[in-house]
Amino acid sequence: PPSEAYDIIVIGGGMVGSVVAAEMAERLPEKRVLLVEAGKASQAVLGGTEAPASWDREAKKWTPWPGMSGLGLTKYDVPGNYEAMQCWHRDCPESWSEVPEFQCKVLGGCGVMNGALMQVPRPEMFESWPAGWRFGDMAPHLEAAQAPPFVTSPTPSKDKVHYLNDTGADFVKVALTRAAFREGRTLQPEAGGFREPGG
């Protein structure tokens, strides 16, 4: 309620805002922490209630999956729904009409919209950063972010199948490898190996 007083207010309940608020509440138990999110609840564990569904591109609406009610899941909980969750226009209920860049206005932020796909950058990318912000400095925080409750399992689906192996970084890595690029401190083409398409 507006009449209540808080010591710390975190604006935005996305991936970062949620973690910051949780960490502050845990480390500063004497402080009152408020997390403010403009979007709706998403995953079931976050209070979401929208049943699993698929996006019908022609009808431009979500079609609920039959027989899925009462399972404690929402459309945001389905790993294979990743591609359908992306919505890059201002008519999406999770977008901001007032913000020039697309942002996910939903509890959990873009992490629940993109299947929580994330990449760990190479340590060399942090070499030019100031002391205290380099990869080694941030490693304990990365380990904390990769631990429960933020990462529940390498295969979060109940059938133990990982549905996103052919998306994101793995797909790009295979494509670059086939184009004769090699992975090292930087991504470089093998000598004489890379050719333009049709070349």
Considering the chains and any ligands shown, give keywords for the structure.
199 residues, 6 strands, alpha+beta, 5 helices, two-stranded parallel ribbon
Write structural notes for this entry:
It is built from 5 helices and 6 strands. The longest helix is centred in the first third of the chain and has 13 residues, at 15-27. The chain is globular and about 50 Å long. 22% of the residues lie in helices and 10% in strands. The N and C termini lie far apart (65 Å).
Write the layout of secondary structure elements.
Blueprint: E1 8-11, H1 15-27, E2 33-36, E3 53-56, E4 61-64, H2 82-85, H3 110-113, H4 135-145, H5 168-178, E5 181-182, E6 188-189
Parallel strand pairs: 1-2
Antiparallel strand pairs: 3-4, 5-6
Order of helices and strands: EHEEEHHHHEE
Strand order of the largest sheet: 1-2
Strand content: 5-15%
Number of DSSP strand runs: 6
Largest sheet: 2 strands, parallel
What's the tally of helices? 5
Query: In terms of structural class, how would the helical and strand content be classed?
Result: alpha+beta
Helix content: 10-25%
The overall pLDDT average reads 76
The rounded Rg comes to 21 Å
What are the low-pLDDT stretches, counting only 5+ consecutive residues below 50? Answer: 194-199
What coarse outline follows from CA principal-axis ratios?
globular
Distance between the termini: 65 Å
